Amino acid sequence: MKKPQLNPLQAQLLKSGLTSEAKVKQVKAEKRKQDKLQRNNGVEIVDDIKLSAEQARQQQIERDRELNRQRKQAEEQKALAAQIKQIALLNRIAQEANGIAYQFNHDNKVKAVYVADKVREALINGRAGIVKLEQGYEIVPAEIARKIEARDADSVVVLNQATQDVAAADDPYADFRIPDDLMW
C-alpha cells in the first residue's frame, strides 16, 4: 500500500501525534469528492468555516465603522466646544465683582453674575446674553449669543427677546411705570 502524499502541515500534525493517518485519508477523500462534485455539476459546496469566517469579518468591519463614526462625532463635538469657547472669550463683556447682581435660572438653580448697570439693562432688554462655558458664565452681545446658539443651543443660558421701550397700545398697565430703584 502506498502512503498518501502529505503537505507539510499534515506531516507536522502526524509527527506531533495530533492526527492519525486514517484521519488524513478521510480528509483527502472528502476534499476529492467536493472537487469532483464541483467540476461535474457546477455545484459549489458551502464551507461552513469559510462562511462563518466571512460573517465574522463583516461583523468586525461593521463594528469598526461604528467606532469610527463615534470617534468622529466626539472629535466634532470637541471642535465645536472649542469654537464656542473661543467666540465667547473673544467677545465677552466684562463682569464687575462689586456690580449689580443679575440673577437667572440654569439647571433649576438660581445663578447670579455681577455686572454694571448698563450691562444689566442690556441683559434685560435682549441686547446681551449669558453663555455657559466649562469654567463659568460669560456675558456676550446678543449677535454673538445667537451665533453660539446656532452651533449649540444648550450653551446659551440667557438670551431675552429684544424689547422696545414703546408699550403696547392695548396694555391696560401702560400708564403705570415700574420704579427704577425696584430690585428683586
TrEMBL record:
Is the keyword Coiled coil assigned to this protein? yes
Q: Which residues form a coiled coil?
A: 57-87
Q: Which domain of life is it from?
A: Bacteria
Q: Which InterPro entries match?
A: DUF2058 (IPR018636)
Name the keywords, alphabetized. Coiled coil
Write down the Pfam families for this protein, in alphabetical order: DUF2058
Q: State the name under which the record lists this protein.
A: DUF2058 domain-containing protein
* Taxonomic source organism: Methylomonas rivi
